[in-house]
Batch of 4 targets.
Target 1
Amino acid sequence: MEFGFSEEQAAVRQSAEAVFSGLVTPDRVREVEATDDRFDRGLWAALARADLLGLAVPEAHGGAGYGAVELAILLEAHGRTVAPVPLWATTVLGGLPVATHGSEQLREACLPGLVAGTTVLTAALADVAGDLATGGPGEPTVRAEPTGAGPTGRPSGGVVLTGSAFAVPSVHVADRVLVPAATGDGGVVIAAVDPRSPGVTVERAWTTNREVHPHLHLDRVEVETADLLGDGDPARGRVIVAWMLARAWVGLCALQVGVAEAALAQTAGYLNTREQFGRPLSTFQGTMLRAADAAIDIEAMRVTLWQAAWRLDHGLPADRAVAIASWFAKEAGQRVVHATQHLHGGMGADIDYPIHRYFLWGKQIELLLGGPSAQLARLGRQVVDDLRSGQAVSA
């Protein structure tokens, strides 16, 4: 693994930090959280102008053609500011799968707008985040019926979707949402649905960190074959869902590293200025040890994140690396945000003080797409399966 960043990656980090730090303040976040959409469109436009939204979009569609590492750099900067924008949903949940598995027609419909900041994407993955019995993707709660079948058995006229997908990030502002749906023959298709289509109902729902993750209800919604990932082949659907989940988890890891790092930095500043018994709180052994433990947790989160992202970008087996990174981000991440809030004492419970927002984001990321126990169980199954097959156990 290469532990250093390239010049291009360093430039991405510098640009991302400049945009977020220059435009995001606690007052601005509070202002946007009070709106119906909870979407900072001014920041979104700035990210587009800085060519950051299209980092992982192919150059043929106006993007930079980068991969998971560059997206993780961007999402880490996002986590440091907990800005209310659908960055993870658009770039990772929607953009990556469309760019890699979408038809040329779907790419043309989605990717140039993503790069320009005029298209918001997302995906309904909460219901398929994991099957505790097998360790693989869960069964979709939405059902797909073919409107017609070609000679290979693939839908020739598209599919009709029925069912509900729950807690879909930012679907209330999305132009397309990728919805996994189970077919009658045991397969899965992933459909790019327009939330404004006939038969679609978006039921508003809110998360721990004040984001909007509505429930999506589908009543015989028609989707054309060109809007199905993987050429609409039901036999490929579960593999594509697993591919999507791996990148979604790595994206959450990057967000959590940024959240935890910023929370600890704010806490260090608070401890250096707040005094008790005539001394700064930072000079007390108890506060120093707890802050040091948080710093160690963050470094463990960081190194496992980059290992997972690097392996994904290089086409190497990454299931175990992703599970390790996800477990660290969720387990250690919640420890960090708990510690930083506790070290603020009574100020940590004041919702007018910024630190509480990092606690809420840390808890949200901890449980999103499966909590730490689910990730640890998934990792354990991978180790057992490798031992049974005689493979060496490694990341």
Target 2
Amino acid sequence: MNKTVNRRDAGLVLLLGGPVLLCALAIIVPLLLTLMISFWERKMLGMKPGFTLVSYQQFFEGARFDVLLRSFWVALTSTPLMLLIAYPVAYLITFKIKPSQTRAFLFLLSVPFLVNYVIRAFAWADLLGRQGAVNSFLQWTGIADAPVDWLLFSDFAIYLGLVAAYMPFMVYPIWLSLAGIDRRLIEASWMLGEVPLMTFLRVVLPLSLPGVCAAAIFGFVGAFGEVAISQILGGVGYQLMGNAITSALDVLHYPMAAAMSSVVVGCMLLLLLLWLRFFDLRLFLGKMLGR
């Protein structure tokens, strides 16, 4: 019996080991190459292999570091906005819609992804422009006497574009987490006399936190490295880290682009490690509710 189990385990390892190893190499090798190039020296239109911290020094002492701080702030503040929209949508799909209609609603969420997100950003720019549909509606209803300028090329446009681009991604992990909750736990809470709000706070929300965390990571990473939305909806002078890295590549400053990319990856890994090590959402929520 043990031999049979060991053979099955070995076969499973061989079956899954290849794809897992391939995926790991596809992720790790480019990151290691990027880190290595970040220490090289720029020479004319090319690079000179070596070990120097010039690119990192120029990054942390120049204006690009301010772009890093802005990117972090935009990602940090836009992620809760996405969650505030994605969670109710996922909740409605899970508990308020018939199971036979769930697939249709999830399909509707995926329809925008059939169009390239750059095209969708240009569509938002057209809607928010001075002659766009939004300004026309505001003037037609009398809410505004003249075209509103802050709708486009502003922080409002950036946040709107980020929410529209990445919020649908966040619905799926939250929906999977909510759908996996045993309904008997909710019914038991009701039978014990808990009101619906406390049932949600003490049962549904804590059990759905793994999906919320996964959704937050999706939204934060997407917003942190955004390129097109910041350029199209924010204007030429509005830069996030993705734009800064692209501008370095445009002038063939590959070590600088590699250094900025390495810093971004390092920041993301550090945040994930801190999240996993120090911040237990379930424990925090339990203390907050006095459990």
Target 3
Amino acid sequence: MVICVAENINIMSKTIGPAMKERNPGPIQDMARVLTENGADYLDLNIGPARKGGDEMMDWLVKTVQEVSDLPLSLDTTNLVAMEAGLKANTKGKPLMNSVSLQPERLEKGIPMVTQYKADVIGLLWGKEGMPRDADERAAMAVDFIYQANEAGIPTSDIWIDPIATPICVDANQVLSGLEFMSMLGEIVPEAKSILGLSNVSNGAPEDLRPYLNRTYMIMLMKYGLYSAIVDGYDKELLSIAKGERPEHVKLVHDIMDGNKPDPASLDQKELEHYKTTRVLMGKVLFSNSWLTT
């Protein structure tokens, strides 16, 4: 089972963005209802940097969504004033702060909010020099973040580590580094949770092909105990995989990762899609927009 955080209530959306700016609750509440019915476990409310009036927007958005859904919220903004407004407005369940990075200013201001509002927090592995270059740097950053959070009184079980997914079309090595780090995390800090933005791995691919990358990468991460993922809450097939309803596909992908290559001629259409996509994500086949048809 993977906890699914629906990413769709996002200011970048062509319908939701204007609704947020105009304080029009209709489209937002309609989407919140659908995402809840689809089986999301959390709703991510992403208002971006929201430099002007972000606190008022987040306060309104939290209240608007909680009128129609009882799901816990992931509050997603780089504006910590807006983040605090959302934490104050939250009345249903334990909120998730998305996110606090290892940048000194973010840590200094973000960590006290976690303790004050008794929230869970996503520890984003982004430091002074940007994103980590490999699995070892991710591991060092994870230990550093958890140490500083623990020192402030935050239990490790309230921390969700995000190693940062990168687009397969940009750097396949970073995709593999994310997998390698996930294989290490349970040994380094067994009590910590893990989370990853799946849509990042498919960013830049044609829209109709992105779900194949997202679904298969989630299955690959599940091999190493993935706790949660930020997902497209309209992808019902992905949600069904997360809820354990496609065990045969999970086994196929994990077998391929273990070096057990099946005969492609023996696979049905869905299995073939996972087979080809796994090989692309493992770097066995060079990524191109035609990976599913070649």
Target 4
Amino acid sequence: MAIGGLDVGTTGCKLSAYDDKGNFIYSSYKEYEVSRHSGEHEIDANVIFDAVCTVIGDVAKKCTLSAIGVTTFGETFVILDDEDKVLMPSMLYTDPRGEVECAQLCDTLGEKRIIEIAGVKPHQMYSIAKMMWIKNNRPEIFERISKILLMEDFIVYMLTGNACIDYSLAARTMALDIRKKCWSDEILGVAGIDKCLLSEPVPAFNVAGELKKDIAEKLGIDTSVKIVNGAHDQVASAVGAGVFSVGCAVDGTGTVECITPVFDKIPTEEKLYSEGYSVVPYVFEGTYVCYAFSFTGGATIKWFRDNFSADKSYAELDSSVSNEPTGILVLPHFAGAATPYMDNASKAAMIGLTLEHSSEDIYKALMEGVTYEIMTNVEHMESFGINPEKLYATGGGAYSDVWLQIKADILNRPVTSLVAKEAGTCGTCMITGVAVGIYKDLNEAKEMFVKEKKTYMPNPENVKKYQKYYEAYKNIYDNVRPIVEIAEKGKKIC
């Protein structure tokens, strides 16, 4: 019998199967499209569910699944009518709609009160603002809504008929009381959203039910397969990396780079929230995580490779760089700035180039720049009492020995890579195994699944050199931002 970890992302979904000893068996992936037109960023929930059914059916041909856990991306929700039909495309978190509604919430409740309840600074990216947008702008659709489901509980509901959502994903709506772990009547009341439309908030490890008969027949598998609520994808990755204790964090480098540290109390400093950090319930009672991220982590490196070295692999590029810091400072805001700036209009900058520099130097400088940006976040988190002392690397960036050593040197912390290629599906399998009783707890599951590959220790000489450059890096944003603004105004005049 096998355990399945289903990871549903914005551009595709993957189901990975493992045996009860943590050995990988098989994985299936299905891609789908996102629509971005006329300022509307949408995705078709029907297409996502069809893709989910495809990967489940594919994996089921290779092994016998006993349970499937579900992890998904956040914020985006699906609205269904009383016949479980999708009423409109789902708005992605990048969709600009909801700004007016978010301001209305703040005008009534106050930004500080929303932060106290929901653990996030109000922003239109969160689900509740977009629910209000539908209510205000699509009333004919809103009055037909029977259920409002985020992607995790949408998949769970379609597979089992039971609507439940784990706390970590529910927190991405900006409507969950993160202390009481229930929907906030105060926020929903002002928003004009009936909580009966929403799924029941539950802890991770919740067995939502078994497969519905029609779904099981469609996929050619047994109805006894149990479906489990996993967690928000960043939380699932933290579990898959074995990040269980305070002082540890997962550093996930895909398109976006995100550090997810664990801590044991809800911070009260207003500045933490004003800088875009959110507080999310973790899988262990009394613990929380927050997300510190850069919009362009691996995307920066891919941009360089695709545009300037398309004939080379990443391994070839890595082999060409020197061991010394480049001395080039890159502000990696190629798609705007995430935490701690939360400035979508910021632009990238490169400082310190000379005729002596090569393309290999620029390649390494991009790695350094993304890591300086993460160091900025680490310093900010430390000021709020959140101090990740060790990082576990996941995602595509974890395959680069060069980049992991750069991270260890700039961050001045050990960085450990893992054997498992997909921390999200791995973590979801761990949660699922505990939920159905295969393991007594996550610590036992960790012994089976989490295998460390290599730990990169800071090089004392390079730590000193990088610290000097980092002190200069901290001044770049404030000095470059006004120049970017002048340039943008110039564009409009032209």
